[in-house]
Design goal:
By secondary structure, this protein is an all-beta fold. It is about 0% helix and about 50% strand. The relative contact order is 0.14.
Length: about 325
């Protein structure tokens, strides 16, 4: 079952009504207690939308045309965190409970687990991204990052240069991999050949960098959980810019850049999704109709931005076309 909440200019901050009218919001309910953490739509229009049902130890799939859902158990002790759709069209999960990355076949729903090497210890796996060679890179908040070659199953774990904290990770259009450290308050670029990570210091100290995404120009956008800022790093010039979210106590969690280079960021403090236009430097706000929505992750496909409300057991799509 699902219900719709179409929003035409529902609310906005420092933006005109014409801008707000561009977005329509639709909400889909998932099974109670699923606590959807991350979400990943298949690339094809109208295709399934995958989500990690952290409360149920399962991978969920939503079919938007009907609102129906299905959940695939991932194994005893599972606590799935991140999910992305790989170049093979399959959902790939970082599972902190299993201490493994997991692939689910999109047709048969067969589950394949890739546990961390023996002796790795508990990694608290968080998120993952594929580079341009088809290698999966992932983070572990306990102080590691790693790589998996799906073609061979070869898996390697690296110690993060500053210990605990690696969290969000993303690929740039050039194929570079960056991660952010919420515990270390920095970003890092991974050399995908050697596996070495180079720390890049943001100008704001103790900002709590939580999630990361790249725009079409390869600039790195970061949601700063502790500072209340959205920041941007330009690798070509090694320069930073930052914008504080509106409101008295912003708590930016997730960040995603859509195909129009509009930047979406979830704000726990405002219980809202925000859209930031880098050209006008204006924020537009789309509050959740329920309290404590807790949007954990944002991903999209052309014309659609998807989010998981872990606090309300809903998936939400913001349609921009």
């Amino acid at each position: 079952m699902h219900w719709k909440a179409w929003v035409l200019g529902f609310a906005f901050v420092a933006a005109g009504a014409a801008m707000a009218a561009e977005v329509k919001m639709e909400r889909f309910r998932v099974p109670g207690g699923a606590r959807p953490h991350d979400v990943a739509p298949a690339p094809e229009p109208g295709g399934p939308v995958w989500y990690t049902a952290q409360g149920h130890g399962a991978l969920g799939v939503l079919y938007p045309a009907t609102g129906q859902t299905r959940q695939i158990p991932l194994g005893r002790g599972s606590a799935p965190h991140g999910v992305i759709v790989g170049p093979d069209g399959a959902p790939w999960i970082t599972d902190s409970g299993l201490n493994a990355t997991v692939r689910v076949d999109p047709k048969s729903f067969a589950v394949t687990r890739y546990p961390l090497p023996e002796g790795s210890g508990y990694a608290n796996l968080n998120t993952a991204a594929f580079d341009d060679k088809g290698i999966l890179w992932f983070t572990g908040q306990a102080g590691i990052y790693g790589r998996l070659d799906p073609a061979t199953g070869a898996l390697r774990v690296f110690d993060a240069p500053r210990g605990r904290g690696p969290y969000g990770v993303a690929r740039t259009p050039e194929g570079d991999i960056y991660y952010v450290s919420i515990g270390g308050s920095h970003i890092a670029r991974i050399d995908t050949t050697t596996g070495e990570a180079r720390v890049i210091e943001p100008p704001t100290r103790q900002q709590g960098a939580r999630r990361v995404w790249a725009d079409s120009q390869g600039r790195i956008w970061v949601s700063e959980w502790l500072s209340g800022q959205l920041s941007r790093y330009a690798p070509k010039t090694a320069t930073w810019q930052a914008w504080r979210l509106p409101g008295e106590a912003p708590r930016p969690y997730a960040v995603y850049v859509d195909e129009q280079d509009q930047v979406w960021v979830s704000d726990f403090g405002a219980n809202a999704m925000l859209r930031f236009d880098p050209r006008s430097e204006r924020f537009q706000s789309f509050p959740s109709p329920q309290p404590d929505a807790a949007i954990r992750q944002i991903l999209g496909r052309p014309g659609e931005v998807w989010a998981a409300e872990s606090g309300t057991d809903h998936l939400v799509v913001y349609r921009t076309q």
